[in-house]
Structures are given as structure tokens and as C-alpha cells.
Design goal:
With 244 residues, the chain is α+β, with helices and mostly antiparallel strands. The chain has seven helices and twelve strands. The strands form two sheets. Strands 6, 7, 8, 9, 10, 11 and 12 form a seven-stranded antiparallel beta sheet that branches. The protein has a five-stranded antiparallel beta sheet with strand order 1-2-3-4-5.
């Protein structure tokens, strides 16, 4: 069984209470929140006794339509365990935001917040932080509200956000030799200013004896007084205008 099929099977098993049903290779429909979840492998690596799985998960309202895409990475002793770890990060960090958005569960670790931008007022749904290379008791003391969102929101307040649903995939890492990497995707597209914000956050982390420490978070903004039920892709001009 290939990684896509394994991922779909695992999701359907774990999300049975959400009415999960495998529709195709890597595609699962959740009848509870009325969402389609598509897993696409991008790379599988085997090195010694370990296997690494890398891929993307796209959540959409209809099959083949535009959706929110995030990157997933998992490591295990074989392909199945690597796929399982990758899915676990998505299940713990990203899915709670979608379930809250679709009215299924109040399962966010942080209560909904609010941000006022030059484009209007938005409700903020912050997913739990998911970590790698972090020991017990090493999670950030500031909590998810201030860890990434605090400095990022200060930048977004100056942007002219369109009155639509926005989502952000936030990732930063710091290695044992203090090298820092960061990626901030806004609506599936890279955002250079966001990358810079996350890099500055990661620079403040204490030294680690792990090869790499990383934190990932998924955040969704819902426009107040406008359509909160649709995931749409902005045009290039719209992206440039709202980030000005």
C-alpha cells in the first residue's frame, strides 16, 4: 500500500467520529464538518533504520476546488509510522481550527481573538503549537497567543486585508549551531515579511542540544460582517494590494 492510501486509511480510522470516508487514493471526506481532506506525498526518504515522509494536506469544501494547504513531515521506523506521525501533527495542530470553523467542536487551546486591520475586523482562530525536537517542559512559556501571533499580528494590523477567510501556516526552526529557518505561508503563498517575523522569534529561543528544535502553527482569520464560509484564492493584484 502506497503512502497516499496509507494516509487515507489512517485518517478514516482516527476520524470515524467525524464521519470519515475514503473516497479515493489519499482523499477522505468528513461528513461531520463537511470537508474534503487530500493527502499528497512529496518525498519519502529512507536512511538506515529511519523513514521520513513529507507531503501536503489540502482541506477544501468541494472535491478539486481551492483549499487550505499545509506541509506535513513525519519520521518513523517504517513508512506507516512516518505517515502516522505526519498526520498526528496535522490532527493536533491544524484540524482543530477547521472543526471550530465548521461549528463542530470548541477544541482550540486558545479562545478566539480579534484583530483590526486596515481592511477591517477579523476573528482569530489559533491552532495549538506542534513541536519537534523539544523536551518535556521546554514548550514556550508565552503560549500560542504571544509566541508567533503577537509579533505577526503587529504586522497584519498595517495590512489592508480583503474581507475573506485568511489562513497562515507558520513554521520556524533553530539548530544546535543556532542556524534559524522560517516559513510563513499566507493563503498557500509564501510571505516574505512573515518569514522575517518568524525568524526573529526563533532567534530568541534558548540553545538546544537537539539537532533541530521547531514549532509549527496554523491560524485562520474570519472576516466579521462578511462571508466566513468560503475558501477563495485571491488574484495576484489582490495579494499585492492587501500586503501593502
Amino acid at each position: 500500500m502506497g503512502p497516499q492510501a496509507q494516509a487515507a486509511e489512517l485518517l478514516a480510522t482516527v476520524l470515524v467520529n467525524e464521519g470519515a470516508e475514503v473516497r479515493a487514493d489519499g482523499l477522505v471526506y468528513l461528513s461531520g464538518p463537511r470537508l474534503f481532506v487530500q493527502v499528497r506525498p512529496t518525498q519519502v526518504m529512507e536512511e538506515g533504520p529511519m523513514t521520513m515522509f513529507m507531503g501536503t494536506i489540502t482541506t477544501s469544501l468541494e472535491v478539486g476546488r481551492f483549499g487550505a494547504t499545509v506541509t506535513v513531515v513525519g519520521v518513523g521506523v517504517d513508512l506507516r509510522s512516518a505517515v502516522g506521525e505526519a498526520l498526528a501533527h496535522w490532527l493536533c495542530g491544524t484540524l482543530p481550527v477547521f472543526l471550530f470553523w465548521r461549528g463542530r467542536h470548541d477544541c482550540l487551546t486558545s479562545p478566539p481573538g480579534e484583530i483590526v486591520t486596515k481592511g477591517g475586523r477579523f476573528t482569530v482562530l489559533r491552532g495549538p503549537l506542534t513541536a519537534r525536537g523539544v523536551g518535556e517542559g521546554e514548550s514556550p512559556q508565552e503560549g500560542p497567543d504571544r509566541f508567533y501571533w503577537g509579533p505577526l499580528s503587529a504586522v497584519l494590523e498595517t495590512c489592508r486585508l480583503l474581507p475573506r477567510v485568511h489562513w497562515f501556516e507558520l513554521f520556524a526552526s533553530k539548530g544546535a549551531s543556532d542556524e534559524v529557518e522560517a516559513t510563513c505561508n499566507w493563503g498557500n503563498k509564501g510571505w516574505v515579511n512573515g518569514d522575517g517575523v518568524l525568524r526573529e522569534v526563533a532567534k530568541t529561543w534558548p540553545p538546544t542540544d537537539q539537532p533541530m528544535r521547531s514549532f509549527r502553527q496554523f491560524i485562520m482569520l474570519l472576516p466579521q460582517g462578511a462571508d466566513q464560509e468560503t475558501l477563495t484564492a485571491p488574484t495576484l493584484w489582490q495579494r499585492l494590494r492587501q500586503r501593502a
